[in-house]
Automatic annotation (TrEMBL):
Protein's UniProt name: 2-dehydro-3-deoxyphosphogluconate aldolase/4-hydroxy-2-oxoglutarate aldolase
NCBIfam families: PRK07114.1
Family: Belongs to the KHG/KDPG aldolase family.
Entry keyword NAD: no
Pathway membership: Carbohydrate acid metabolism
Subunit structure and binding partners: Homotrimer.
A GO molecular-function descriptor: lyase activity
Amino acid sequence: MAKFDKIAVFQKIAATGMVPVYYHANLETAKQVVKACYEGGVRVFEFTNRGDFAHEVFGELVKWADKECPELALGAGTVVDPATAALYIQLGACFIVGPLFNPDVAPVCNRRLVPYCPGCGTASEIGKAQELGADLTKVFPGDVYGPAFVKNVMAPMPWAKVMVTGGVAPTQQSLEAWFAAGAYCVGMGSQLFPKQVVAAGQWQDITNKCRECLDIIAQIKGR
């Protein structure tokens, strides 16, 4: 069962504006990355379903985070079908994210009041996802669509809440461009966790980078 309900998850996303996106097959490494992000102010974290037995790592991560990162809403990403969504929800996922929009995933999430954030690439896809209960939709890959896409979608659909993932850099320039376009939040992966930083166990670097990004986002939203 999800530790945080849909309202609580959205409150956390709204408060921070950033969702780290990460996968690692090694549980201990995943714990270190999650803890580093948490100490940097992150309160919503997406663990992606991108490797063999990823769900087993996720299940252990959820139980660990319940004690070590008590305010963290941990969700599952790269979910493309209802069976996988159900599996991760049973393991405690607080939200489900997909690179694509699968209408059959929505009822599974809605039944348990778990947010479903599908990847959408057109205004029609975003609209259909909203009809099926997706309060937050994902623009992916962001670097292909660009801030102009978000801006032009928001013009006729100002109620839309969009998370941009892919192509978001942890820099003032990149974050300003996306939030100015109307992004509700951003998802960031490899640029928050460079392979060499993880390999060297430089967890404080990750903490510092997360804190820096959250400070930039707070400044942008505060204007």
